[in-house]
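User: I'm curious what two different proteins look like when written out as structure tokens. Can you demonstrate?

Assistant: Sure. I'll show them one after the other, since each token string lines up with its own sequence. Here's the first protein:
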Amino acid sequence: MSDVSGDDVVVVGGGFGGLSAACFLADAGVNVRLLEKNEQLGGRASRLEEDGFKFDMGPSWYLMPDVFERFFAYFGKEPGDYYDLTRLDPHYRIFFKDGDRLDVTGNNDEMRQKFEEYEPGAAEAFDEYLATSERHYETAMNKFVYEDRSTLRDWVDLDVMTAAPIGLQLIGSMQGHVEDYFEHPKLQQIMQYTLVFLGGSPKNTPALYNMMSHVDFNLGVYYPDGGIGAVVDGLVELGESLGVTYETDSEVREISRRREGFLVETVHGETHHPDEVVVNADYAHAERELLPDHERQYDDDYWDDRTYAPSAFLMYMGVEGDVDPLEHHTLVLPTDWDPHFQNIFDDPDWPDEPAYYLCVPSETDPTVAPEGHSNLFVLVPIAPGLHDGEAIREEYREKILADIAQNTGVDLRDRIVYEKQFAVSDFGERYNATEGTALGLAHTLRQTALLRPNNRSSAVDGLYFTGSFTTPGIGVPMCLISGEHTAQRLISDNE
């Protein structure tokens, strides 16, 4: 057994990173108590249920199925023990705002032909791009993602040196990389849209993330029956079987190191005295608000200088009737999306010509909406820190609904029977998200790999961090792996 067997660990925050870390620690014999601020587990993967509609409030794409299979296999399980998966076809539909429409499917021969229609020679370029993407994915996952390389020493070894070509991909941007293969702006957008899930733009995200096209085209896009919330339930059930104790409505207001161990105190005055603490709450919030000044690793200037991933303007809507021709996943893209990214990263403002995403899970799962109705939400990426008062929300609501009608042919305005909005200030209030970011710390060149905050505190022994601020980064699969890294680091520190 590990030397941590019998230790008491408190995990602060029940997002995917915290849920994952709790499972690995409990499996090692640790007594794990997870404290979650909100009324349900899952972090940003919260669920909203009203009037017969069931919404995933946060993540809605099930990508990288191999990561989930690997996670559950560690415990002798598989995803099918907890939830069923449906492979989506098409993966998603794109409406371009010049009237063009394209379905991205799991049939790469079909996609080659479609690419060739946009640009002579693009079919061959598509093959070359995907081959490079697959090679980078396999190398990155095996040598950089599944391995916890969060310090400079971790990068200076033979395995990393032999992967030097992929390391060089950190130097260039995704925009420059994609331009080497495709000239047509629409093809460039198709290869880059997944950057939204990484909280970056084509110009500030390292070219290494071309590996996401392998995820997109080769590994497939799935839907877990019941939504991403069903995956949360699976992790919780696994954790319970391993002995994890979960407490919701338990917001932590203080974490401090004492001579005899830690003090973790909730807003309700409950106190815990664990041997170690794993923080899955927003990293910047934890350092600034939960820890004493002398136990912080980074000062305010550090956090103020970070590039945070976008926030979002979300509308969860229950609608009478069907919403054809929308698909389960639908993207609506302007032919030039540079101004939208500029409004996120360079000149923060509500975009005049937005790119946005529509999710219609009722196209796949009839249980998420009452009979005769559709369940959908719209997500518009916007800059973190924007003012999102009632007036601008109402103005933008009308703008987006009109844009949907104009560019997809689906007019929702007279059919909405349920609606809830969620934006910058809500992310801050519900998740203590710094500047209202919807995702965490963006994957810019300055914030990738070992340049992200460490998962072990350099200021306090026994204090660890997990989630989208640490390595390997943003997204549900990455947070699952982050939880594993953090748990294993805690365990190894005690050997």
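Here's a second, unrelated protein for contrast:
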Amino acid sequence: MRIFVTGATGFIGSALVPELIGAGHQVIGVTRSEAGAQALEAAGAQAYRGTLEAPAGLREGAAQADAVIHLAFDHDFSRFVDNCQKDARVIAALGEALAGSARPLLITSGTGIGGGDHGEPAREDVFNPRHPNPRIASEIAGNALIEQGVNVSFVRLPQVHNPYRQGLVSPLVAIAREKGKVAYVGDGANRWPAGHLSDVVTLYRLAVEKGARGARYHAVGEEGVTSRAIAESLGRGLKLPVVSISPEEAPAHFGWMGLFAGLDMPASSAQTQAALGWRPSGPTLIADLDEAKFA
């Protein structure tokens, strides 16, 4: 297939492009910079200039493709609600390019969207349009396209990691250095799901190759790693003390990360593994954190 990939030079995208090319696909990768274009061409992809702020241009690029994988997202969390709405507009534009065909559009979301009300792991078959997480806007936009006949499916991400980046864990390193300690909230029993980068890109490939219209897939290798275990690993790597703080102290200590630091967000990928034959086998989050070089 000829696959149009937004976010093709990002953390996940730069690993997904060679995964797709290695499986025999052609890739049109979106980038906003000359350096990004050079990196894509060196990887064997075709570079396409575009930005999230200009969805019409992305629509034109997607029209050239047999499939679209939408990875790009503006991670400025000081404008999280606005950026989620921007993502919804991009999804609508990409869907317009694929309307009237069976060409797949694979949208990115977060595992938290599949969470229940009683602490059970998030599931792929759970969708709540009234979910308080602003990222629900991406899935609502995708559902609107499904109702219009577009072949949309979803990949929900946990904390995606390798030894160099670890999703929302990475900002904790900067916070710990600034504060001189690594903190967790309360008893640190709240859990975050995780998926190794190599497993995540394999899932994207499987989902675009054989995913079902309307399906939601969880890129989860570990259902839940406790925040205390994460903090203890960071403490070892940074050689800083590890401490518990109260929920009331979390906003001042973590800043914008205070929105997430104490959340319990376990997630299952059982349905994904059964549907796609996906078997995550990469290193664990703690193994990657223990290998990370924080100096």
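A detail about the second structure: The chain has a mean pLDDT of 95.
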